[in-house]
Specification:
The protein has 125 residues and is mainly alpha-helical. Helix content is 48%, strand content 10%. The longest helix is centred in the last third of the chain and has 21 residues.
Length: 125
């Protein structure tokens, strides 16, 4: 999720090149309104977006009980922002520009975490 269309397109292309599906949203409100019915395996969000920041979205999702791995990306990093994002449960906090290798590594680790969480959940049998 990023308000910059070029960044959204590049991130989605990277995710798809790794064999995963990707949906893109220009802002948090679009995701909350039009997002998939079930939570994604991982959410990649920019911090600075109109309306609601990526960290605010993360905090809202956590408050609603969604424990999906979230990768927070920003061009305006500060130690306070990093601490807030990580304290709110961000899986990773990356500074722009993010290289493809770092994004791929972060995504792979986040998806691994998602698989571990799902395997640990009690089955609905």
């Amino acid at each position: 999720m990023d308000d910059d269309e070029a960044v959204r397109t590049a991130t989605a292309s990277l995710v798809r090149s790794l064999g995963y599906a990707a949906l893109t949203y220009a802002c948090a409100q679009d995701y909350l309104r039009d997002g998939p019915g079930s939570p994604p395996d991982c959410l990649i969000t920019d911090v600075q977006m109109p309306g609601m920041t990526g960290v605010e979205l993360q905090e809202r999702l956590r408050a609603e009980g969604h424990a999906l791995p979230i990768i927070v990306v920003t061009a305006f990093a500060s130690e306070a922002l990093r601490q807030r994002a990580l304290a709110s449960g961000a899986f990773a906090f990356l500074e722009k520009p993010v290289g493809g290798d770092l994004m791929e590594q972060s995504l792979q680790l986040a998806l691994e975490e998602c698989r571990r969480r799902r395997a640990a959940e009690p089955s609905a049998d």
